[in-house]
Amino acid sequence: MNSKCGLFVQPPSVRPKDDIRLAALLSLRAVLLRSQEISDITSQELQNVTTLAQVLTPNAATDNAIVIPGGPTLSYAALSNEIERVAGVLAAAGVEAGRPVSIVLANNLEFMITFLAVARAGAIAAPLNSAYTVDEFKFFMEDAEAQLAIVPPGDHAGRDSANQLNIPTMDASSTGAHVVIARNGSELTLTKDVAGPSEDDVALFLHTSGTTNRPKGVPLTHKNLLTSLGNIKDTYALTPDDVAMVVMPLFHVHGLIGVALSTLNSGGSIVVPSRFSASTFWADQKNTGATWYSAVPTIHQILLMRAEEDNAPHESFRLIRSCSAALVPSVFTDLEARFGAPVLEAYGMTEAAHQMSSNLLPPGDRVPGSVGMGTGVEISIMDEGGNMMPLGERAEVVIRGDNVTHGYNNNPEANAEAFTNGWFRTGDQGIMDADGRLTLTGRLKELINRAGEKISPLEVDALLLDHPAVAEAVCFAVPDVKYGEIVQAVVVLSGDADEAAIQSFCRERMADFKVPERIYITDTLPRTATGKIQRRNVSATFAPQD
Q1: What CA–CA distance (Å, rounded) separates 490 from 533?
Q2: Can you tell me the distance from the alpha carbon of 465 to that of 320, in angstroms, rounded to the nearest whole number?
């Protein structure tokens, strides 16, 4: 990557694993390995797949790759041809290898082809939420030092932002299976041969969600991404027979890496509606024979609540994956019972090119509340001083592996804080058991310090959710003159209850200092575009500070 986008910290060499972790990883590998008969890919072909330019797994050219509900279906051959053509168009139009391209497109055919074409041309794809404001677009485009912004035709905040920053723009639209790349209203048709990228080149430039601070730029190499894709394919035994519903945004690693690219890399098909809609989800699933989907808990809950009125099948998927936040145990159980598929909770983050751990497919175990075992990623628990903690002790979750970013973009201070002895500090607190199974207990920066007592927000959330009338809950810290910080919470109800009743319920089950001193009752919780609940946003909404 050029100097415009990447100050990297190279982790030192890996130290030997302890016997317990090695045994756990070997056991996991034994569970996850698929039979060679399920894939047409040879060992040599797998070794050659090192960049996104080769992400489309060799298979029958006529097999469906992308299905757009209400739109075209592209075979692998058609998809490959479009990617190659658009990559040539971009190169002929002056797009330079090694420099970021902001992609401001919704979940659609244009996004998938443009994203892979940018990667094929050796440039760096920097997808952005198409719903951002002008100021948000300007921050992310400027931070990435984008050479180009690809936007939808017509008026759009992304175009306005690029114009204000003097960043050139191109339009992307589609006519059937043909993606139109245009400048000033005229389609660009001139093409140029492009050289493929190398595995160490940066392929993807994203930003952290900014849950606790200013978003940081995260460069991910082709090797980071292909490693993550391989881990995901192995974890869920993805094959060319699988069809994935893409319900999460493609500008985020969950939808892009966790579902879309991992499925295409396995030779399967992806179904890409323009956005998640509960009213069309089951029709799309039935029409395409979708075998799995991955989503945040909110979407699972919506599908569960609407299952009967939408006539959802009782045996609909091979697996259901959940990521981003812990599922309420009752939702976990109800999902499995209603849809007849194992629910696998996973743990991911942008800096790890998405997945780090997951519960396992049967006959492997799946434990509600746990995020499972490391999936091709080393996971350990480290204290503030950089010492590894014994199993069963609670401290910061640290990771290392070929999927992990080498460092934040042009941010030496953040890199110094994030890396210790070659391990990446996730900022999450957790506990690992003797089987190598990880349970998260909260974000370190979100721990509530009430008069010296450290309180895990996740613990309070979980107890609130145990109340039969509470459907959703999130607690947060509020500054207090006497105690430093106190606990407050917001809940969404599914039954009859009031603040006093919920507080009484909590007092019977936890220490008094953990009980929320104020509980706000609301109809909805504020969420990010990817469905995350950010405590700081909830706090600012319900308990704003002067």
Answers
A1: 11
A2: 22
**Cβ(343)–Cβ(332) under 8 Å?**
yes
Identify the structural domains of the chain with CATH numbers, from first to last.
79-197 (3.40.50.980), 447-542 (3.30.300.30)
Cβ proximity of 66 and 245 under 8 Å: no
CB of 225 within 8 A of CB of 261? yes
DSSP collapsed to 3 states, 120-145? HCCCEEEECCCCCCHHHHHHHHHHHC
Contact assessment for residue 440 and residue 429, using Cβ atoms and an 8 Å cutoff:
yes
Closest CA to 369 of 459, 445, 300: 459
Q: Confidence band (pLDDT; 50, 70, 90) for 2?
A: very low
Rounded to an integer, what is the distance from CA 246 to the centroid of its chain? 12
User: 164: part of which helix (H) or strand (E)?
Assistant: helix 157-164
d(CA 126, CA 248): 17
CB atoms near residue 283 (< 10 Å): 13
Sign, CA dihedral 259-261-267-268, equals positive
pLDDT digits (tens, 9 = 90+) for 506-518: 999 888 889 999 9
Q: Which two tokens stand for residue 526?
A: 């504020």
Strands (E), 25-72: 64-67
Q: How far is CA 329 from the centre of its chain?
A: 21
Q: Give the three-state DSSP class for 378.
A: strand
Name the pTM for this structure. 0.81
Measured distance CA(406)–CA(371) in Å, rounded: 24
Reported as a single tens digit per residue, the pLDDT across 350-396 is 999 999 999 999 999 899 889 999 999 999 999 999 999 999 999 99
388, 381 Cβ separation under 8 angstroms: yes
